[in-house]
Amino acid sequence: MPLFARLFNFACWLTQDRGEAEELVQDTFMKALKGFRSFEQGTNFRAWIYRILRNTFLTTRAGLKVYDSLDEDGAYEPESTQTPELLLLARSSRETLHLALEQLPAKFREVILLCDLEEMSYQEIAETLAIPTGTVMSRLWRARRAMRGLLKDMGHGGAA
What topology does CATH give the domain 77-160? Predict the structure, then answer.
């Protein structure tokens, strides 16, 4: 199954529940198989299947609840001069990062996961989330800023 482990990981982050994530991935593959005719050869399969997963999640009660409460100009605006990558390498444990990611609003968490964990390009993320590339870049910048603030608040950000 192509991308199964990666899709499951992303689904776990979206749902915050392993059982729901398993169902979400299963539903995603079922929809992908049923709708495979709609996949255009030569286009990005990874973005296509991630989009199916995300859209499937958004149609669930949990997904609707998470995304209905989002504000495009989120309140997470902590300041720091360090990048999340430096914080990760220098001082943060995997557990601390996990906790910080869980605290991010879903729209920020998903761009960080798709970019930094799944190593998608901005264009792939834009296709997956059905948003403009500029919005991807803006959300990623704000998400990383929020991560810095959260890690700093958790005592892992060092001096600003």
Answer: Arc Repressor Mutant, subunit A (1.10.10)
Q: What is the pLDDT along the chain (160 residues), one digit of tens a residue?
A: 668 888 898 888 888 889 998 999 999 888 888 888 787 787 888 888 888 888 888 887 555 555 544 444 443 333 444 455 544 444 445 667 778 888 899 899 999 989 988 888 999 999 989 999 999 999 999 999 998 888 888 776 544 3
Contact indicator for 117, 9 with CB cutoff of 8 Å? yes
Q: Which CATH number fits domain 1-68: 1.10.10.10, 3.90.1150.10, 1.10.3720.10, 1.10.1740.10?
A: 1.10.1740.10
CA angle 112, 71, 97 (to 5 degrees): 30
Q: What angle do CA 109, 134, 145 make, to 5 degrees?
A: 40
Distance between CA atoms of 85 and 156, rounded to whole angstroms? 12
Assess contact for 88 and 101: CB atoms under 8 A.
no
pTM (predicted TM-score): 0.56
Domain ranges of the chain: 1-68, 77-160
